[in-house]
């Protein structure tokens, strides 16, 4: 398969257009009497847009991203962007399984960089690490078929095996990346050494046995939470083109849509700066903007009804459960319905939906310990 080195090089004209649009932003008024009551707070957004226009240095961030070896590969006839960072291992040290680290929504490969730095070092386990941009995100193209979990898993498995030549590998992810990680373990148990997730999986069906009180309580709480949080997925799944038109035309609108979830889903205790620095947030948002991929990032939601039930996961599994509203009191027995071989379960009580950015030391240590235990 065709593989070529890749460097991010956003044309000056794209950045000039971005700044011009930011300078013309029309802001709204707060809809409630408390900040963030109605979503991204207009005062916060005004400050963010001002810094994006006047202080944010994309070229410096671009250079930092390009310090990581990046590639484009043709997988299934479509371009897939990925990082491939090989570890420097001391002579005689057995290699742990290479790791595939997969982001979710509304994120990008940028989320995984703190883990790359830690896991490729000799003290971090000396893993070879592969970080793709999911199809429809960044510089990765969408397939011609519906973007189901099985299609995503097939694409990433081909990357690891056919393109990069790994016979066995470990997989980690959160959000959609975690769902795909589960599918990889279910579909390719002979080549996936193990999986690690921060969002434990549901079974394909709850029919095997009656729900326990803890399971029923969790499912009820999740349904209640979706009543206040699920609007974003409903509109992305049913009216993706309408929403994407607005967000692809307004960088401030794009920032508001993404920041809303970074605040709601991270373990920030009411202040985004407790979880993310502004430059990191704007790097992720700018990747969406300069690639024009906010609309294609919705495809997984729009194509959701094409998914089929996932087979049971039989490979070794580990979970570091994120500390966010949707995961509160997640009972292990739900994951045990989906996985037959859970080797590790921890609830650290910190680190939210974007744990690789929020708690990289904690998560890297858990990944290192689990995957090094799976050496042949």
UniProtKB/TrEMBL annotation:
InterPro entries: AB_hydrolase_fold, Epox_hydrolase-like, Epoxide_hydro_N, Epoxide_hydrolase. Residues 4-112 form the Epoxide hydrolase N-terminal domain. The keyword Protease does not apply. SUPFAM superfamilies: alpha/beta-Hydrolases (SSF53474). Pfam families: EHN. The active site is at 175 (nucleophile), 301 (proton donor), 353 (proton acceptor). Transmembrane segments: none annotated. Its EC number is 3.3.2.9. Keywords: Aromatic hydrocarbons catabolism, Hydrolase. GO terms for biological process: epoxide metabolic process. GO terms for molecular function: cis-stilbene-oxide hydrolase activity. The keyword Electron transport does not apply. It comes from the Bacteria. It is an enzyme of class 3 (hydrolase). Belongs to the peptidase S33 family. This is Epoxide hydrolase 1. It comes from Micromonospora lupini str. Lupac 08.
């Amino acid at each position: 398969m065709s593989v070529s080195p890749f460097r991010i090089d956003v044309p000056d004209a794209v950045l000039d257009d971005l700044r011009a649009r930011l300078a013309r932003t029309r802001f709204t008024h707060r809809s409630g009497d408390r900040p963030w009551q109605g979503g991204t707070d207009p005062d916060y957004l005004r400050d963010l847009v001002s810094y994006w226009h006047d202080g944010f240095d994309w070229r410096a961030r671009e250079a930092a991203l390009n310090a990581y070896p990046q590639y484009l590969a043709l997988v299934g006839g479509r371009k897939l962007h990925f990082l491939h960072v090989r570890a420097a291992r001391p002579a005689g040290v057995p290699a742990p399984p290479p790791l595939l680290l997969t982001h979710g929504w509304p994120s990008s490969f940028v989320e995984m960089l703190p883990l790359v730095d830690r896991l490729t070092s000799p003290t971090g386990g000396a893993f070879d690490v592969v970080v793709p941009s999911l199809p429809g995100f960044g510089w990765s193209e969408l397939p011609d078929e519906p973007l189901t979990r099985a299609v995503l898993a097939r694409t990433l498995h081909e990357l690891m095996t056919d393109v990069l030549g790994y016979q066995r590998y470990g997989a980690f992810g959160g959000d959609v990346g975690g769902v795909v990680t589960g599918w990889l373990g279910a579909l390719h148990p002979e080549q996936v050494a193990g999986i690690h997730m921060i969002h434990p999986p549901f079974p394909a069906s709850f029919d095997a046995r009656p729900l326990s009180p803890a399971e029923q309580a969790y499912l009820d709480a999740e349904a209640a939470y979706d009543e206040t949080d699920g609007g974003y997925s409903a509109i992305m799944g049913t009216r993706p083109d309408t929403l994407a038109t607005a967000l692809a035309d307004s960088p401030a609108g794009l920032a508001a849509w993404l920041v809303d979830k970074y605040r709601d889903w991270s373990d920030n205790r009411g202040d985004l700066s407790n979880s993310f620095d502004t430059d990191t947030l704007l790097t992720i948002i700018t990747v969406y903007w300069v690639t024009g991929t906010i609309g294609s990032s919705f495809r997984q939601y729009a194509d959701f009804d094409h998914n089929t039930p996932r087979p049971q996961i039989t490979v070794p599994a580990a979970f570091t459960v994120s500390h966010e509203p949707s995961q509160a009191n997640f009972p292990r027995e739900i994951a045990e319905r989906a996985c037959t071989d859970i080797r590790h379960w921890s609830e650290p009580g910190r680190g939210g939906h974007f744990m690789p950015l929020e708690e990289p030391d904690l998560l890297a240590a858990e990944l290192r310990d689990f995957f090094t235990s799976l050496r042949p």
